[in-house]
Amino acid sequence: MHFTIPETTERKDTNGTPYTSFEVHLNGVHHCSVRYRQLHNLHQQLRKQLLPANLSMPTFPPKKMLILSQIQVEERRFGLERYLQLISQDPRLSQTLSFNGFLLATQQETHADPERTNEVELDVFLMNDQKITIRGWTVLQTQDVIERVCSQLGITDSHSSHFGLFLVQRAENNILNELSIGSGNIGGKSNMSANHMTLVKKLQDYESPYISLKSHPVSVTGNKLKLVLRKACWENRIDSELFKHKGSLNVLYFQTLSDVERGWISADSEIRKQLGSMQARGAKLDYMETARNLKDYGYIQFTSCFCDYPTTNTRVSVVIGSRELVLRKTDSQNGQHEKEGRFKVTRMRCWRIMSPDASTVNLLQHGCNGNDKDNHFGIFPTCSSAEPALELSFEYLMPNNRDMQWISITSPQAILMSLCLQSIVEELLWMKASEKNGFKLDIERLMSESSPKVKTTNRQYNHKRQDGIEVLVPVRIPVPEASAHPSKIQSEDISSQNKKIKSTMGIRQYSVKSLSKRFDVVNMKEASRAAEDVLIENVAFQELSANGGSHDQE
Hints:
This protein is an alpha+beta fold. The protein has helices spanning 36-50, 70-88, 91-94, 97-111, 142-153, 157-160, 173-182, 209-215, 236-243, 246-261, 269-280, 284-291, 358-366, 414-433, 443-449, 539-546, and strands spanning 3-12, 18-26, 29-35, 120-125, 131-136, 163-170, 197-202, 225-231, 300-301, 305-307, 314-321, 324-330, 337-344, 348-354, 390-397, 404-411, 456-464, 470-478, 509-514, 519-525, 533-538. It folds into 3 domains: 3-114 and 465-478, PX Domain (2-Layer Sandwich), CATH 3.30.1520; 116-298, Roll (Ubiquitin-like (UB roll)); 299-419 and 487-554, Roll (PH-domain like).
């Protein structure tokens, strides 16, 4: 989670008493508006939960007796932002009923009618525009919605965890025409049609899809957003199991048809003829078995952005899939890829999300005005996301197996990229765990017995609204792991193998909190950048190093 409170708003309660509302943004999008006393109440709830274990908590900005000056309001805003970022990085706090209930309840209070007692309808689409309508409370969380949609589609419970909900937008017709020319299509005819989409956001389980869609119905370009169900797994062996069941096969088939149509999956004219023939006769399994062997099958493609590899402010297109992140530098004259850099996730020691350099943001914004003739790279417009640009940087073990290099990407989709990397690592370690002690991986049995997602349970959260009224909110929260992690902030513990690797982190000061068996989150302290920057240790990298294993080579 990446928290910011970029602004405050002066409001009045029902009695006309003025108060300051703090506008909380989560993962780059406005999540809720809250009062100081609501956050203080959350702090008290968390303290009560941790008190029996005598565990420490982040410092909460203190109460003041007198009316705050503008400088004091700014100090409080900064302190609350830091507080939220710190508790979100500690699993003892972030997985509690209090924290998850607070996120869901404040989102509902801010963006939906808190008095609503009737069920609502929510439309979820497949990539072929097939609509599935479900009914439920506004506070139904992401996994609840996924399970209900999958049930209607005939997808088994054991398979539903391998699908995700995304907010997507369609490209405008004039953009499609420009892109078809930029992509080198003869006569300016695009093979993408109206089915061209851009992924804006992957919904997380702490939010309500109904409220998220209602609060952000259109993108910054004015295009309507939709909720779409897509595959959210990366391993081909998982796909093989999904192919065996009609419901999951249909979803993957419609997604692959769409991906081939708009160029996410590369296919020459001969392969397209074969795929067209299979489609015409309804041979879905044959279609999928052929398509899965094509370049970029199962990859997510992102809008064009900037990176510092191989040189500063290089404009690239980014694709993520099959345990790797790929950077493609495109010739702006003919739309053809010039160079490609492939970065294996298992060679990333860590990655971080932070505020971008102002000059790079200016370049991104410049790419959005009508005077920029180079505003097309591949088939994706530069500024299609509703989210602000952030910097995703990862520390990579270079091919000499000795030097570590930071590579940075500045994009409005940086959060989505980070979530994809995290999902790949979680899936990888989930599969590796079943291969321990010399056992061969049985993917069918593994999928039937477990999931890479955290187990959850249903609870009731007592939420105090801005007007002081208390309401009960049903919330789905993670089941605590059996093994507890150390509670104190520790200095970084690098394995003896990793100490031999030259790190390029320089003299930055940082501290580490243990997040889970999979990741560590590091709070980067650098005055010239964001107040709290999130860095994630990739334990898939650490495990290979500690066990003397070899990292994937290119």
